[in-house]
Amino acid sequence: MEASSFTLKPWSSCLLLCLLAFLTLLASFAVAETHYHEFVVQATPVKRLCRTHTTITVNGQFPGPTLEVRNGDSLAIKVTNRAKYNVTIHWHGLRQLRNPWADGPEYITQCPIRPGATYTYRFTIQDQEGTLWWHAHSKWLRATVYGALIIYPRLGSPYPFSMPKKEFPLLLGEWWDRNPLDVQRLAAFTGGAPNASDAYTINGQPGDLYRCSKQETVRIPVESGETILLRIINSALNQELFFSIANHRLTVVSADAAYTKPFATRVIMLGPGQTTDVLLTADQPPAHYYAAASAYQTAQNAPFDNTTTTAILEYKSAACSSKKGQSSVPALPLLPAYNDTATATAYTVQIKSPSRVQIPTQIDENLFFIVGLGLINCTVPNSPRCQGPNNTRFAASMNNVSFVFPTTTSLMQAYYNGVPGVFTTDFPPVPPVQFDYTGNVPRGLWTPSRGTKLYKLKYGSSVQIVLQDTSIVTTEDHPMHLHGYHFYVVGSGFGNFNPRTDPAKFNLIDPPLRNTIGTNPGGWVAIRFVADNPGVWLMHCHLDAHLVLGLAMAFLVENGNGPLQSVIPPPADLPQC
């Protein structure tokens, strides 16, 4: 008897492949979970630097809870406000597609959750994985109200690098030896610069180099030879930070929840809001090694916290070594000087996408935004409310417009419900006056106008924004964050952007995908994205001292065609003003 043979015809083979792809897609949705959490915002006694303060926390934890989910999962997070301040929560870096109601910035996409009230944030993770974070988006509450948001790949999908033995989130923060909101209120009253923080922290702890802190220093246990993944988040309120671990190389594999071409480095730099995932191999003699973070400060003559926070990378076999007479005092990494822009720049330009990306080349909206500080003349000079430089008050702006947050409703609610008089859509696409942005700027250009101005984008339009720092008051690296989007960083440089020559140097092959990017101090950065997420989305400096001064604007992205390109209706429990 001849053995029977079975041959797939081309059409049946294609059908089988389509069926398998459909079943795989179906399985991916089947394993997606919905995570339910309760966040109680409350006052909690927290002791740091020898003193106990009544600190605003989530669930009594500082930092707050770490959320662990997978790509495709949904979350429902009920926030109950038991503090005495208004509060909102922002899920930093999440796209929130068609769902600005869950984004969280106060008076932008929602009214605040008032004391005693609740609001449930509901959203789905869509095609994002990596390290993000959540934080309060009301005044300076995010100084202590923040936590990690870790998005793992879908079940069955591996990392694009070797699986680490362990993972550790490291949240870099700032600590004031007083109520941070009092610090903000004092600066708002005087018009001067806010007091600098008293310590930096790693996972809420200052570390060995501060008073009354040694016993609680964070420890990262490792076995010799193993590779671990560190998920590093700059959750500091006002400070860019260098980070390093003594005698160890760090391999960068992701930034802002987007995978990167791996590269090794001794030091990384993160602006507030940015995240970086690094692999570390425990390949040094068993001992204790400090992980440390200190300031990267670009503003001239500005007060800042020039201290160093530490955690300890602790080889488990180090105890045996110390018994043999070896020193148990951890080695301290050599961190860059606080003003080492060369090191910060050399690090940042190494971050690239893993392979060629699809990037907009035909630009529909070519925008040029100058960003920076300004000064407002006082009505009563030499008064307690006039403590800025030369009898002025500090201000900040984008394209000479200092952003004013509404107080009677949110921008998104006003837009959705057709409430007039809350905002205008005449934010300028270019500076109202052209000048030598990084040179000697005439004093008459130092004072911005004030307004709640939005810039309107059509759904699906391709957008390029060049963010140009200015030398008004001081040049500075401003970490700019765009809500509701991530974007490709196609170029950067120092001095004034040249539209005739600089675009030729753009990286249109493998630029990094970010949600927060710094302007070079005295320079510029160019970003591109497609406006495929309808709603009102805030763009602002993530130095909160600058945000409250007006260094912000918002995009109004119009609905496209049909429900899949339109904002979903607001939830029934959306807070009202």
TrEMBL record:
Organism encoding this protein = Rubus argutus
Q: What does this protein do?
A: Lignin degradation and detoxification of lignin-derived products.
Please give the name of this protein.
Answer: Laccase
Query: What is the enzyme's class at the highest EC level?
Result: oxidoreductase
- Which residues does UniProt assign to the signal peptide? 1-32
Cofactor names from the entry are: Cu cation
Q: Which residues form a coiled coil?
A: none
- Plastocyanin-like domain residues are 41-154, 167-317, 426-560
GO CC, alphabetical: apoplast
